[in-house]
Request: fold
Amino acid sequence: MKLKPLGEQVMVITGASSGIGLATARRAAARGAKVMLAARNAQALEAVARDIVAAGGEAHQLAVDLADEGSAERLAEAATARFGRIDSWVNNAAAAMYARLDQVSLEEHRRVFDVGYFGLVQGSLAALPRLKLQGGALINVGSVLSNRAIPLQGPYCAMKAAVMQFTDALRMELEQAEAPVSVTLIKPAAIDTPYPEHARNKLDEPARLPQPLYDVELVAKAICFAASNPRRSLYVGGGGLGISWLAPAMPRLADKGMELIGGKPLQTSSVPPEPDAADNLFEPRADGRTESNQRPFTRQTSLALEAQLHPLATAAIVGGVAAAAAGAFLLRRGGPDDVGTREAQRRIRAAGLS
Reply:
C-alpha cells in the first residue's frame, strides 16, 4: 500500500486543542499537510488554527463533541468541503479518570467510553468512505494500558482495550476487502501532556503519571510517520513496549509490578493543576498546551520507537554489533589457548619460513 507524502495530505485530527493532538497538528502543518482540527473547546481550536496559519500552514477547525451522535460525520463533511478530500484521519480524542473503580459512577464510566471509544468508532466509520476513494491512513491513538491495566485508572484502561480490539478487527476486515486503507494503532507509554489535569480526579491529591515519562513530540512523530508509512502498530516509549510484551507472559509478576507503580504515591503530585484546568470529562476546559504544568523529567528520545520506524537500519546495526562481538570472541579464542594456531606457528618456524 502506498500512501501520499505527509506534505501532500489533508489530515483530520480529533482532540486537537491540547496534548498529543495539538503537537500532531503543529508537526503535520509544519511539514506541509493541511490540517482539519476538532475538539470541544472552540476558543482554543481557533487559537491553534490561527497560530498554524500565521506560521505559514493551512488549518481549519470545527468545534464538536465526538461523543455526540453524528459529530464525526459533520467533521468529515467539513473537512471535504474545506479541502476537497481526506488523506489521513487521526482519532485522538479521549477522556480519563483517576479513582478506584468502586468510586466511579456508571455515568462517569459511560462518558469515558462515549468519548474515547464510541467517538473513535464514529470517527473511523465516517473516515473510511472518504479514505477508500484514493487510499489513505486511519490512525487510532491507543495506549500501552490496553495490554496491561494499572490501578486507579480502570475506566481508561478498559476503554483503550476496547479501542485496540476494535482497531484490530477493523484492520482485518479492510484487508479481507482489499481496501486501500492503512490502519495503525499508536500505543504511547506515559506522555507528558495535560492528561492529569484534564482527567477527573477522586484521589484527594493532584494527579500525575508515573515515570518513565516521554516527550509529547515523540507521539506526534509516530502519528505523522504512520500517515505516510503503513504500520500495524507503533509503540512510543521503551518502558511501555516492555510492559506490553512481558505482561502476557508473566501476568502475576506484572500485577505486582503495576500495583507497585500504580499506587497512589506514584500517581499523585504536590503540584496542583492551573486554576482554569479543571477536569474536562463532561465540559471543555482551558486548553492550548501540549505539556502538563508539573515540569517532570521527560525522555526526549525513544530508541524503541526509532527501531520501529527504521526496522531495516536497526536490523543492520544489530547484525553489525552481533558480527563484531562474534569476531571479537573468535579472536580471543584464537589467542594463547588456540592449540591449532600454536602448532601451525611451530611448524612454520621449524621450516625456516618465519
